[in-house]
Design brief:
With 549 residues, the chain is of the alpha/beta class. It has one domain: FAD/NAD(P)-binding domain (3-Layer(bba) Sandwich). The chain is 23% helix and 17% strand. Strands 1, 2, 7, 8, 9, 10 and 18 form a 7-stranded mixed sheet that branches. Strands 5-6-12-13-14-11-17 form a 7-stranded antiparallel sheet, with helices on one face. 54% of the residues are buried.
């Protein structure tokens, strides 16, 4: 195959951004994706489908056959899991990856999210650390992502937000009945509600129409292309340059390394299962935290016998997602007005500054739930079947509100991704083995946030509440997976430097959520994109000076 400047593994939130930036910068780029192009017809709006494949994003891959993972429980029990099972920690496998099926919240992290160690000290039993970059380093790239991908909302009402130079490019969607009820309750409590920033068109934007406010959003592709991801923004722009070639249904097996310790390209299995080789001046890994760590561990070499970037055993460590406390409230009057996507009002009053608590979470109302999804969230006093169950469904579905938030987890050395020694995928490669659990401080914070959610719903008028609080068992990941190739200045305690370059190698980069030192109390997609814009700018700058090659 023709030698190229850069090969990128993964066409998701980060890989799509990097491909666009490098291609527009004049570099020859090959972008590989293990899935294919998908759309609304690939995931019908069907309650039974939603129940059967309940993991967010799974309808867009990978398929259950040939893609297992191994999860190790805290008691040592090993489970071989399929992508449609919860402990698998799935991230969609398609062009755009999770940005096709996500709820599309577009949050900036706060300034203190980049300074967790400085803010809260050394938390015993954790690997809590500051990022080597600050919010101000990312601010211009946050702005670029908001305008190029397309974000609606209004965060002016959030007094805790970090400084910003421009407002969001689109106004917020009109509030639902649920949102307005919660907004008024928050204000009575002295809290500060505001409109959630969303990768969603509230008005026509960049040639795509506005959101039609349907109930089918999370876990689905948008029928009117109003939900903005890399698949309908930056990846088409990359391809339009003529400098970027996208190869779909290609599974990367290893990163090639020469005897001087430089990456020379990759080997991958093409859509027909044939092993191919693509050489390049530089390699960018953007497979998300679990698969990116796996690829580095698979890529062993005489100079790197434990995998690339893993000289000090940091690859795969510090796996984080988000622990979600959720509280539901039952109301006397009908709340449901069938106005999607549901989530629309949020609070950041408890993201930081909580006495005795390390970190916190943004709190918001949940996206609309289908009746079958509501079955999974019924209260403990309701039978799961029979007449009483049916009565509650009829009485409760249109009369309830759920709120919650992504608790900022404490990173842990023991929460990790490794390679399993026995189980192989369809190509004969060792599969991911996920180990570990959650830090006690994470659970403590989740309980704190649960209490605030309960107070919010009570003030809104809920007559009865029920809660779901995450426990300490089980590693966390899912579509918010992060941390396994953390960024840092010291090669002995991190995998990549502040520019996302692997410490040991001059031309190998990891650019995705795996470089997050901490994962914030927010959905991380916008931060992943901002980091990608910044890292791509660094590659182009060094390329012109000959530094990368």
């Amino acid at each position: 195959m023709k030698h190229v400047n850069v090969v990128i593994v993964g066409a998701g939130a980060a890989g799509g951004v990097v491909a666009k930036e490098l291609a527009e910068g004049g570099l020859d780029v090959v972008l590989l994706e293990r899935g294919g192009w998908v759309g609304p017809n690939d995931c019908r709006k069907d309650d039974l489908r939603n129940q059967r494949t309940s993991v967010l994003g799974h309808p867009f891959g990978p398929d259950d056959e040939g893609n297992p993972r191994v999860a190790v429980d805290s008691d040592g029990t090993e489970l071989v899991l399929r992508p449609s099972e919860g402990g698998y920690q799935n991230n969609a496998a398609c062009v755009g990856s999770g940005t096709v099926s996500y709820g599309a919240m577009a949050w900036r992290f706060m300034e203190r999210d980049f300074r967790m160690r400085s803010t809260y000290g050394a938390v015993e039993g954790s690997t809590l650390e500051d990022w080597p970059i600050s919010y101000s380093d990312l601010e211009p790239y946050y702005e670029k992502a908001e305008w190029e991908i397309g974000v609606s909302g209004d965060v002016d009402g959030d007094p805790f937000k970090a400084p910003r130079r421009r407002r969001l490019p689109m106004p917020p969607l009109a509030g639902s009945r649920e949102c307005e009820l919660l907004r008024a309750a928050a204000r009575r409590l002295g809290w500060h509600p505001f409109d959630v920033p969303m990768f969603r068109n509230s008005v026509p934007y960049q040639g795509r129409q506005a959101c039609m406010r349907c109930r089918w959003c999370v876990g689905h592709a948008c029928e009117v292309d109003a939900k903005n991801g890399t698949q309908n923004t930056v990846i088409p722009r990359a391809l339009a340059t003529g400098q970027c070639e996208l190869r779909t249904r290609c599974h990367t097996a290893t990163i090639l390394v020469d005897d001087g310790g430089k990456a020379t390209g990759i080997e991958y299995y093409d859509t027909d299962g044939r092993l191919q080789r693509q050489t390049a001046d530089a390699v960018v890994v953007s497979g998300a935290a679990i698969e990116s760590a796996r690829l580095l561990l698979l890529s062993r070499h005489r100079l790197f016998p434990n995998g690339l970037g893993n000289r000090y055993d940091w690859v795969g460590r510090n796996l984080q997602g988000h622990s979600y406390p959720r509280v539901a409230g039952l109301f006397a009057e009908e709340i449901y007005d069938d106005l999607g996507p549901g989530s629309g009002v949020a609070l950041c009053d408890f993201s930081h500054g909580n006495s005795g608590i390390a970190g916190g979470a943004m709190i918001t109302n949940e996206f609309l739930r289908s009746p079958y999804q509501f079955v999974q969230k019924t209260p403990p006093w309701t039978p799961r079947w029979g007449l009483e169950h049916k009565r509650f469904m009829r009485a409760g579905y249109r009369f309830h509100i759920s709120v919650g938030g992504p608790v900022q987890e404490m990173p842990m050395w023991t929460s990790r991704v490794t390679l399993d020694s026995k189980i192989k995928d369809r190509f004969g490669l060792p599969v991911v083995r996920i180990e570990g659990g959650k830090h006690p401080k994470t659970v403590e914070t989740a309980r704190f946030i649960t209490a605030r959610c309960e107070r919010w719903l009570k003030e809104a008028g809920a007559a009865r509440l029920w809660s779901s609080v995450p426990g300490i068992k089980g590693a966390s990941g899912g579509q918010h997976q992060a941390g396994t190739c953390r960024m840092g200045n010291d090669p002995k305690t991190s995998v990549v430097n502040r520019d996302c370059r692997v410490h040991d190698m001059p031309n190998l980069f990891v650019i995705d959520g795996s470089v997050h030192v901490t994962n914030g109390g927010f959905n991380p997609a916008l931060t992943i994109m901002a980091v990608a814009y910044r890292a791509a700018a660094g590659i182009l700058s060094n390329w012109k000076g000959g530094g990368v090659r």
